[in-house]
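Structure (tokenized):
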């Protein structure tokens, strides 16, 4: 559990830096914009690797990862259903579109839906810590983004109806790939089982 928690602290702490504009700008001024981005990327990658290793280790040792509750079958169905809009929001985060503009911060919506769906489908302690942490982070960051007036990586760029089609079909394709192949390949568990 310690490895997972350290990974979450590193990963989420570095992602909280941009929520403090003075801290972020101070670091960028001190190390240069490129230096700040390199440090951010390395720290985020280290945190991510620790999260993956820590969570995987807990899945291999059920005695260290107690089952807190047993989700009913309908929770798993709801979790799968929530992942479709999560994938569409994820694609919308990177494609200028009217969907992106409407959602304002589609990446945070994708994280919230992903975390919530996985909290519904899993009742073990490691899942509660992992997905609960990401849900709390996304809620906090959404509040922070609103206060700061941050626009996200695409800024105010919007797109045409064709980009909306790309977002929807891209999200559906990503959803299908994860549902039928990638989730089991990467995580070791099929969402369909």
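Design, position by position:
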């Amino acid at each position: 559990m310690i490895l997972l928690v350290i990974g979450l602290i590193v990963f989420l702490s570095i992602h909280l830096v941009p929520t403090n504009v003075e801290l972020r700008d101070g670091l960028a001024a001190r190390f240069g914009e490129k230096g700040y981005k390199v440090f951010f990327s390395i720290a985020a990658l280290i945190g991510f690797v620790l999260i993956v290793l820590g969570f995987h280790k807990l899945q291999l040792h059920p005695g260290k990862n107690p089952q807190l509750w047993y989700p009913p079958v309908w929770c798993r169905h709801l979790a799968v259903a929530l992942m479709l809009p999560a994938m569409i929001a994820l694609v919308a985060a990177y494609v200028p579109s009217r969907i992106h503009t409407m959602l304002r911060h589609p990446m945070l919506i994708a994280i919230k839906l992903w975390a919530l769906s996985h909290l519904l489908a899993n009742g073990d302690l490691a899942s509660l810590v992992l997905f609960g942490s990401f849900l709390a982070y996304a809620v906090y960051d959404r509040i922070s983004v609103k206060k700061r007036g941050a626009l996200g990586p695409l800024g105010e760029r919007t797109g045409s109806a064709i980009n909306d089609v790309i977002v929807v079909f891209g999200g559906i394709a990503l959803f299908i790939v994860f549902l039928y192949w990638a989730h089991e390949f990467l995580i070791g568990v099929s969402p369909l089982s």
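Reviewer-requested clarification: The longest helix spans residues 21-60. DSSP finds seven helices and no strands in the chain.
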